């Protein structure tokens, strides 16, 4: 039972390049998330998917796109990478959104992205 | 911002001592959760406390919630070097447009052997 798996673990990009971060969960969760973590900023939500077929913007969506490919997979794409997107990216999932106690979030191990 | 704010930002203690971290938030919440992050790893859920609960225990962890003060505390008793990590509170609040958890910036705990 792998939980949340994200790839790649490390990536260096040149400004303007594009790339996709892949994420898959095997817990049959409905909701999936992409966060970024920067020093002194905590975790900030980029995009989330409440359920298969839906995606919504989070706090910092600019410069990113997402695809909820199926119930298991949720990818994050940087179309034209910028140095400001240098960060650690976390994919996560939960049974559901909302406030009914099923919103405990399970995180992947992170992807370290550097844009030069 | 609807974020929880942890206090202190950093805490250094000796093994065997208790560690207390605090979290304050701004709006009414439905539940509050604490997460732990070891260096270079993802966050791991520790405990959830609902708005109608005042205290909850899990092993060496004790969480309190004071909704009148909009604050929570996480107490780790008899700390161990392995407790060295960053600890985050996360709030699920009523009427949130995102319907998800909002994380604070974390408390970095260092437990010296």
Write the layout of secondary structure elements.
The complex is a heterodimer of chains A (116) and B (113).
Chain A: E1 4-7, E2 10-13, E3 19-25, E4 31-38, E5 42-49, E6 56-57, E7 64-68, E8 74-78, E9 87-94, E10 106-107, E11 111-115
Parallel strand pairs in A: 2-11
Antiparallel strand pairs in A: 1-3, 3-8, 4-5, 4-9, 5-6, 7-8, 9-10, 9-11
Chain B: E1 5-7, E2 10-14, E3 19-24, E4 29-37, E5 43-50, E6 55-58, E7 61-66, E8 71-76, E9 85-93, E10 102-103, E11 107-112
Parallel strand pairs in B: 2-11
Antiparallel strand pairs in B: 1-3, 3-8, 4-5, 4-9, 6-7, 7-8, 9-10, 9-11
Which structural class fits the helix and strand makeup of chain A? mainly beta
User: How many separate helices of chain A?
Assistant: 0
- Which structural class do you get from the secondary structure elements of chain B? mainly beta
Alpha plus pi helix count of chain B: 0
Helix content of chain B: under 10%
Alpha carbon gyration radius of chain B: 13 Å
* CA gyration radius of chain A, whole angstroms: 13 Å
Gist of the model:
The complex is a heterodimer of chains A (about 120) and B (about 110). Chain A has strands spanning about 5, 10-15, 20-25, 30-40, 40-50, 55, 65-70, 75-80, 85-95, 105, 110-115.
Your description of this structure?
The complex is a heterodimer of chains A (116) and B (113). Chain A is mainly β and 116 residues long. Chain A is built from no helices and 11 strands. In chain A, strands 2, 4, 5, 6, 9, 10 and 11 form a 7-stranded mixed sheet that branches. A 4-stranded antiparallel sheet of chain A has the order 1-3-8-7, with no helix packed on it. The termini of chain A are far apart. The model of chain A has no long low-confidence stretch (mean pLDDT 92). Chain B is mostly beta strands and 113 residues long. Chain B contains no helices and 11 strands. In chain B, the strands form 2 sheets. In chain B, strands 2, 4, 5, 9, 10 and 11 form a 6-stranded mixed sheet that branches. Chain B has a 5-stranded antiparallel sheet with strand order 1-3-8-7-6, with no helix packed on it. In chain B, 36% of the residues are buried. At the A-B interface, strand 4, strand 5, strand 9 and strand 10 of A face strand 4, strand 5, strand 9 and strand 10 of B.
